[in-house]
Amino acid sequence: xxxxxxxxxxxxxxxxxxxxxxxxxxxxxxxxxxxxxxxxxxxxxxxxxxxxxxxxxxxxxxxxxxxxxxxxxxxxxxxxxxxxxxxxxxxxxxxxxxxxxxxxxxxxxxxxxxxxxxxxxxxxxxxxxxxxxxxxxxxxxxxxxxxxxxxxxxxxxxxxxxxxxxxxxxxxxxxxxxxxxxxxxxxxxxxxxxxxxxxxxxxxxxxxxxxxxxxxxxxxxxxxxxxxxxxxxxxxxxxxxxxxxxxxxxxxxxxxxxxxxxxxxxxxxxxxxxxxxxxxxxxxxxxxxxxxxxxxxxxxxxxxxxxxxxxxxxxxxxxxxxxxxxxxxxxxxxxxxxxxxxxxxxxxxxxxxxxxxxxxxxxxxxxxxxxxxxxxxxx
Length: 379
Known about the structure:
By secondary structure, this protein is α/β, with parallel strands linked by helices. The protein has two domains: about 5-100, Transcription Regulator spoIIAA; about 140-375, no CATH class. The protein contains twelve helices and seven strands. It has helices at about 35-45, 65-80, 90-100, 115-150, 160-170, 175-195, 205-245, 245-250, 255-295, 300-310, 315-340, 345-375; strands at about 5, 10-15, 20-25, 25-30, 50-55, 60, 80-85. The strands form two sheets. Strands 1-2-3-5-7 form a five-stranded mixed sheet. A two-stranded parallel sheet has the order 4-6. β1 and β2 form a beta hairpin. α7 runs parallel beside α11.
């Protein structure tokens, strides 16, 4: 006969091998919950291994009792293993319901006060911008390192891809660059003449056009056009290759994607953007000459003679010096965003948009920094 090691009105523990036998007795209802809980604590101390839990002696059970049974079984499981037996058909469904673990109900997210939400959004946007700018600087450093290494070993320069990119970003862009430069030159003369006519200084419109076009508008507008046209193309081309796993295939074959994809585009743009800037300057001045002839009755010959006398070479040099730096920024942004594409075509579209916005923003910031620098050195 099994030895009884613990007995109360609700629990009886019999020693056995390999497991103890725990009999549940009486009514396991909410009225007896405190007494049952106290008995459970003493029972758990008396059992140092698994046990069989016999529910045959239960004469009444409610939800509280079912919870206590499940809690007792869980604590016995920590010591060994708990096996429930002798469950009456009247109580089986209740115990099954109590044993279920319902999924967590979705709670309403915390809503920030209306005056805090905009500040939080601005802060998060600032942190994302700083993080993105830091990654871009890191990528630019990598590209420049590979570029200097390539210049020291010219045999590594991929001439055929570079010439192809020069055709795409330079030759094929001449139409749109020339059209916009011509119109901007004409508009500057038109608006400048209207304002200067109030002071009887119409002729100074030539100074306005020359300085503005050569120092700022020529290179800046050309860079913005190239950023929207070629920078986005760089992102789309490299991003498509990334989606098709062609970039991973290059790495598998031992080819560096920076050497194969980035450097030809960077070199091509750094060569073509100064040339496009010179072209935009010439066409923009031609637009101004045309408008001055039509509106102010200044002949092209007189316009060019005065232009030569008042506009120094320094103004032209300032615009051309900026072009390679703008080209490096545009090419780096376009290629960087392309290499960041992953998972889907939606991401490709987002990265293409980011590359254009980021390129134009950085070009304008860089232009402002150049303006401050050239003013400081009196150029």
